[in-house]
Structure formats: structure tokens, C-alpha cells
Amino acid sequence: MMQAKVNYLMGLILTCTFLLVIFPLNSSADVKVIISGGYEKISSFNEKKIEFISLSELAATAGGRLDWSVVGHKISFKSENARFEFLVGSPYFRLNDTTHNLTFPVTLKDGQLFVPAERFLPYLDRVSGRRITWDSSRREIRIDSEYFNVTDIAFSSKANGFLVELFLTTALPYDVLVTEGNWININVRGGTVNRSRIISRKDRRFMYNLKAEQLENNTAQISVRFKREIKTWNHKIVQNPPRIQISIADANFSFDTTKHIAPVGPDNKIDVIIVDAGHGGRDNGAIGQRGTKEKDVCLAIAKKLAKLIRKDKQFKVIMTRDQDKTVSLEQRAAIANNSGGDLFISIHANASPKHSVRGWNVFFLAPARNDSARSVAQLENSYFLRERSTLGTHMEQAEQTDDIDPVLSILNEMIMTEFQEESHDFAMMADREFRSKLKIPARGVDQAAFFVLNKVYTPSVLIEAAFISNKTEEKLLKDKKYQQKVADGLYRAIKRFKSKYESK
Ligand SMILES: [Zn+2]
Predict the structure, then answer these.
(1) CA of 351 to the centre of ligand 1 (A)
(2) DSSP code at position 280
(3) Nearest-CA neighbor of 349 among 448, 475, 454, 491?
């Protein structure tokens, strides 16, 4: 399927080049957007034979939201489950944290954002629940929602087990495979899957992950990773409407929350917030020039945050520690994973051998892309390794962090991407609150491989509230007003996150 798309695209590019040679277009004009039977016109202009369309108007016609950040000319575009980030004047953009190249720079004109149609629309198509095609000769964008034949998925609890139903528009050949790690994989041959619809059915209460992929051999693959072991299961195809049913007939496969599970559709409540005060007990964390211990600052902020969340009856808060005690990496993860946490927030203070370095940071879990982020993760991770060595396990190896890193980094790679989008999203929300509340330098959102985030099966961030190694910020970190501001910012971001992900 992807291959077919690439070929199709290549064809388009060639056809387009050919037509442009014969019929050069250069004046400002409109492009037709054909959607649900009718059509609308959106602004476009042609520059050096490249058609640029107004993304602002496309969003208004086809859905999606543009967020402008005038400083630095950053513009993000959110459509269904995808997030695009553009930089005005640059051909590079980010799509859910990977970088792509449009060849031609995005442009601002008459207060609207213009993107090169032919290069941009295939990306939108890839992440959209609808088929989006660009016809360069007619200068038309076609948005077709009747394109998929693997349309939806539903989960429901039964008296003695669980039922998964995959909806099709017609009966198609398929197979079901249960693989290690409690994965159920459904391959539908000749299937074209509505990815964003299916992914939106992810329910954190009983699954770790839900994936929908369009494989190259014209096969749609839907994979669900359940939290419980799958022992006995069978499958069949039924009609009216056509769907594949997989019954997991196993008493063990029962969930605490089954009685609340709606028969169809999502119920992704975000109500359990895990607040993780960094370090504690034998682990002081970093120590400031005036002797302030990171562990004490982390706990003070964590308590203020927990208090705010507790007051809000729509949430339940769980702290990994509420006093000065040692909590291992495994204990922190167990507390988060066993409580059905929907969001994990780890609170820290940063440190640098350069005492002049200042500012706050918000991190989410993904491979680090710069040395600065990498060094923050190495510092935070080193405390867990040190703790392990004082407990007498792997005494020698723990001293040499390199011996442990490779194993953990393999695990990292596997788990890292699982909640990346939501974690990044929450990090951006916290960033927005901090920028307006905290009057110290904004170091912003970054990504790195933190052990503590990697063990948690839920969206998670790690914040560095300020630099304890800087005298001014050490004072701030001890200041109750500053601690409260950090807690307020996080609380507001939590509410934002809840309203966004629950309304999906
Ligand atoms: Zn720390």
C-alpha cells in the first residue's frame, strides 16, 4: 500500500511537471477542495511552477487547528491525531516529532500560512482518517471519507471474558496471531484501515497499546497489547455488520473496571495523576552551593501539586513518596503502573558544574537529540545507579554506567515511542503555563532517555523546576511562592490535558 502510494506520487510528480511545462500557471488563484459531495475554494498562489495552498483555509474547510507562536514564527497544525510544526521560511517541518522536508519553504502571505500542495498533502493523507489526494492538473484537493474497508474497533466485557470486534465494510480474509507480551495481531488481507479512528479507541485501563498499520502487501494490521495474559481465545467473522470477533474466553482475563466498559467507543478517563517527587531518603539528588538538597525541594513542590489536584474532585492523586524516604526506580514504576495512572509527573531540580546556568526545563521520554538534554538524563539516571550500588547489587557494574546503559537502552527503544505523542503534548502544555508563570529563563521542552519515565506505562514528563547549582535559583527553589507557581503551572496543564484527551 505505501509502495503503491509512492508510485502513485511519483506518477503525480511526473505528470505535474509535464503539465506545468505545457500550461505554466503563475497567477494567484483558487484551489478547489472537494469534500462530502460539494466543494469549497481555498486561496493558492503559484511560484516558480509550485502550487502553494493556504493551510489556514484548508483547516477551516477540512478540519484541524492552527496555533501560532509569533516569536520565532513557529506554527503548529493539529489535525485528528497528528501534529505538524512549521517554521515560516523553512522547508523542514516536524510531524509528531520526526522531521521531514517539503523541498519548498512554507510562506506567510496576507496573514495566512501557505504550504506546497504536492509535497504537503501526502503527509496529511498519511495521518488522516480520510483519503486526501491532490490532482495537479485540475488543481483540486479531494477529501474522501468512504475510502476505508477496515473502519473501526470495539472492546466489550462479557460474563466470562472479553470481546474484540473489528468492523469491516465487507467480509475479507484475515488471520489472528497472539504473540509474546499479550499482543493480539489481526491481519486483514485487502484491507485499507482507518488508522486514526482505530487508534482513537485506545483505552488505557486494559491495554498498553493499540496500533493500526497499512502494510505494503495490501494488508491492514491491527495490534492490541493487553495488560493481562491471553490464554484461551478464538475468532470468527460475523455479518450485519461485517466484523471479525475475537473472544478471549478466560476467567483470568477480567479487568477491575470491566463493568464500566462501554460496549462501543472510547472512555479514556484521565483521572489518576501520579506525582513523583524526585530522589529522597539516602538519595539527596543534587546539592546547592548553600546546601539545599534537591530531594527536599522536589517533595515541597510535589506536595503543593498534590494538594491542588486533591482539591479538584475530578482527580485522584497518588504520590510515589510523601515523606523523606528512599524509593527505588522499581518501586516508583510499580506505584504508577499498579494504580492505573493516566499521567506521571516527575519533579526535579537541575544542576550544572557551571554555576551561571539557569532556567526551567520540561522533558519527555525519547532519545536525546542534543548533549545538553543527554547530560540532564545522565545526571538524573546516575542517582538510581548509585542507589543500586549502595544496595549491594551489581556493585562494580553500577560504578561504570556504560555497562548498564546498553541493556536499558534496548528497553528504552521499545517502550519510548509508546506514549511519546501524548507525553510531548503534555510537556508543551506545561511549557505554555511555565512561560507565563515562571520568571526565570525558559529552557523549554526537550527529550531524553530517563530511566524513571521509561518504566511507566502512561504518558509522562520530568520537570526540572530550576537550577539548584545557581545561587539565585537555589533561593527560588526554597521559596514557597516559587514552589507554588511551579505546582500551579503543572495543575493547569493537567486540566488542559484532561479536557483535550477525554473529549477525543
Ligand atoms: Zn533529580
Answers:
(1) 8
(2) B
(3) 475
Domain boundary among 227, 260, 293: 260
Distance 471 CA to ligand 1 centre (A): 17
pTM to 2 decimal places:
0.51
The residue range of the domain holding 403 is 272-502
The side-by-side arrangement of strands in the sheet containing 219-226 is 174-179, 183-189, 219-226, 207-215
Residue 224 and residue 343: Cα distance in Å, rounded?
21
For residue 278, the CA-to-ligand 1 centroid distance in Å is 5
Give me 254's grid cell: 477480567
Greater confidence (397 vs 196) lies with 196
Q: Rounded to the nearest whole angstrom, what is the distance from the C-alpha of residue 295 to the centroid of ligand 1?
A: 8
CA pair distance 240, 459, nearest whole angstrom: 37
For residues 130 and 164, state if they share a domain. Answer: no
Residue type, 136: S
Based on the domain organization, do 254 and 398 belong to the same domain? no
The H or E element spanning position 141 is: strand 140-144
- The average confidence (pLDDT) of the chain is 80
Q: Which residue has the higher pLDDT, 310 or 227?
A: 310
Query: How many angstroms separate the alpha carbon of residue 300 from the centre of ligand 1?
Result: 14
CA 385 to ligand 1 center in whole angstroms:
13
- Could you tell me if 208 and 304 lie in one domain? no
Of 393, 392, 401, 276, nearest in space to 333 by CA:
276
Cα(343) to centroid of ligand 1, in Å?
19
Which residues have a Cβ under 8 Å from the Cβ of 79 and sit 6 or more positions away?
Answer: 59, 63, 64, 65, 124, 127, 128
CA distance 60 to 179: 43
Q: Return all residues near 231 (Cβ < 8 A) that are at least 6 apart.
A: 250, 252, 253
Residue in 416, 494, 421, 487 with CA at minimum distance from that of residue 456: 416
Q: Is the pLDDT of residue 83 over 70?
A: yes
Work out how many domains the chain is built from and give that number: 3
Alpha-carbon span 430 to 86, nearest angstrom: 20
Cα dihedral: 411, 413, 416, 418 (round 10): -100
Packing angle of the helix pair 471-478, 480-502 (nearest 10 deg): 70
Distance 500 CA to ligand 1 centre (A): 29
Quickly tell me which residue has 504536492 as its cell.
118
Cell readout for 10 is 511519483
Hey, what amino acid is at 58? L
**Interval between CA 380 and ligand 1 midpoint (Å):** 5
